[in-house]
Specification:
Helices cover 23% and strands 33% of the residues. It is an alpha+beta fold and 253 residues long. The longest helix is centred in the first third of the chain and has 17 residues, at 3-19. The termini are far apart.
Length: 253
């Protein structure tokens, strides 16, 4: 893929994100054919949207998704409620994020779980805002989703919680969403990779292998405990992550 092709694909994906409107899949001549094409487009989308990444969203790779990682842009970071959303059917994903307290620079030797845990200074509860770039029947595949920042619209930064990054309690817990009139939704929350640190360790070594690494202050969110949930708008909500902690917020449009 040439730079011009990647830039054209990035313009289409950035426009879809800015407008909040899903559309057809990328034209065939600017469609990523491999991971490096997707990452090239992904980087250009970031540039068109102002760059300035504050970290990553990721999950451990699977047979279908060999490298499930995307930057999280500062423009999408939200740390106060109410949260303004673009569509009437807003979806969120309840997640656990880690904040780096020290660098994990590129190196030849893979990082161990202990080394990555020791580099983490904060464990935070977050809500990822999801906005798909493609219509459900478009036929768009994983590489196009990867190029478009894996449907990331934003990240609501919840509280820091007093728990070790590798605490077994983070493997799963009930997700209960409550409004002033009662319980809106309940899910048996379970991390898709078994534990958030599985994704975090993979990311540290993936970036290291690419000569990039992680830096102090960056934030990494690691996958939803309950899939993508549609929540009501204009309603104060309390999202309870079992006994780990709660997020209080309101989505408005």
């Amino acid at each position: 893929m040439t730079n011009d092709q990647a830039l054209e694909a990035a313009r289409l994906l950035a426009a879809a994100r800015t407008s909040g409107t899903a559309g057809p899949r990328l034209p065939e001549d600017v469609r990523p054919g491999n991971l490096e094409d997707a990452f090239l487009i992904q980087g250009k989308v970031s540039e068109l949207l102002g760059g300035n990444s504050i970290g990553y969203k990721c999950s451990a790779p699977t047979a279908e998704r060999a490298a499930n990682v995307s930057p999280v842009l500062r423009r999408g970071l939200i740390n106060r409620s109410p949260v303004t959303v673009q569509t009437e059917r807003t979806r969120i994903e309840p997640e656990v994020a880690y904040v780096l307290g020290s660098d994990l620079p590129p190196r030849a030797q893979p990082y161990t779980m202990r080394e990555v845990c020791d580099a983490i200074s904060q464990v935070r509860l977050v809500l990822e805002l999801i906005a798909v770039r493609f219509l459900p029947d478009s036929g768009a595949g994983f590489l196009e989703s990867l190029a478009g920042h894996l449907s990331n619209e934003g990240l609501f930064l919840g509280p820091q919680v007093a728990i070790a990054p590798d605490d077994p309690a983070l493997a799963g817990f009930p997700i209960v969403i409550e409004s002033p009139t009662g319980i809106v939704m309940e899910r048996a929350g379970k991390h898709p990779d078994g534990h958030p640190m599985t994704a975090m360790l993979w990311l540290a070594n993936f970036l290291s292998s690419r000569g990039e690494g992680l830096k102090e202050g960056q934030l990494v969110t690691t996958g939803s405990f309950a899939g993508a949930l549609e929540l009501p708008l204009n309603t104060p909500l309390r999202i309870m992550f079992g006994g780990v902690g709660d997020i209080e917020c309101e989505l408005v449009r």
